[in-house]
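User: Here's a chain of 134 residues. Predict its fold as tokens.
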Amino acid sequence: MIADIIVDLQYGDCGKGKVTHTLLENGDYTHCIRYNGGCNAGHTIYHKGEKFITHHIPAGVFWGVKSIIGPGCVVNLETFYKEIKELESKGVLCNGLVFIAKGAHIITASHLVEDSPRKQDWHHQAWQRSSVSR
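Assistant: Prediction complete.
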């Protein structure tokens, strides 16, 4: 088995999605697997002249390649379903092509509230009030 791996050693925004999209178009691939990250960033892909921005869905769907959201990824189901609906409304079929690995993490509305700046500020203030090192 031969695999091509695209890795970002910086902080994103370096073209991984575009490179993956191009490789999938020109290669003979059976799977496209995203291995980490969440939906806070995205890939801008131009497919057949149309612009797509994906946050969860791997680029394999554009070429009919099984696309797996792998272990270590964080999935916001609301964003995930919205993205699939948007892709399919533009003619990109996802049914039977998109899979979520058992090791992926699911986040819910309660997680988003917990991570909100207001909640984090409250935690920071509570920590400062309890700190004995002042």
